[in-house]
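Objective 1b. Sequence-to-structure analysis of MaoC-like domain-containing protein.
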Amino acid sequence: MDVELLDKAPSIGVEIARALVPTTRGGPDGTLPTRRVMVTDLEQDAERFAAYSRVCGFTLRDAVPATWLHVLTFPLQVHLMAGGDFPLALAGMVHVSNEMRLHRPVQVEEALTLSSSAADLRAHRSGTQVDLLGEARVGDEVVWTGRSTYLARGKRPTGAAEVSPPSSSDADGAADRQNPSKNARGADETSPKMGETPSALWRLPAGLGRTYAGVSGDVNPIHLSPLTAKAFGFPRTIMHGMWTHARALAALEGRLPATYGVSVDFRKPVLLPSTVGFSFAREGDDLAFRVTSKDGSKVHLTGTVA
């Protein structure tokens, strides 16, 4: 695979603007870029990491959580998706699931080589899905890997096999899932073990999306204000799914081993302002968790730490 070596991590805002320039894309029948985008010798910003930890609820430590490494790799994903050779338009793509593995503890003072590539363009009952893969290395050692699955609603690849229709519980979700991550699959069915009432409530203020954007760099307009969210069909500002993911991981950090894998499905968007509930349960050696409405009736996110 060819490597596109960048001098520094790209600006997500600039990449979003680049993606809005009209261009002819291959669509569901197109081909994915065959290059890996890479940045080397990236020095982590300790002050930014401290701010990220505060916003997401992590205890500030020298060792970074897995979600922080996703934040650092995410601009490379957006750079790939914004390119003219990416077959699907970035606007309107929905992040439906995420999985990552921390292979060994990573310290904030360690310099990183980050890379991202695209894989597995495939049919989904609601359109077309694609995976964006991420990797972090310290020297030659792989210390973190991640996979983000995105859905482009609408057309499916020509000749794609018929996919069974969604169940009634999925039909009104923000992001239908054809291939949920293995550990998160069926997490709704584990809810009785966690209790129908959340064990903790989190109050999310109206400006939380802007606050998280400031520390993560993810300036997608749907997260910044009601006006820009409405332009994309949402009634109010919606919270970043990766903040919800990180906040759940922070709630479990005292139970996390030194190395772990975590997978989540993003089920329904969290509108701002709002109050959401969190609950978890141990299932064998794994921790299953979910974020719901405050009464537990609506599931926003399900996940598993293994």
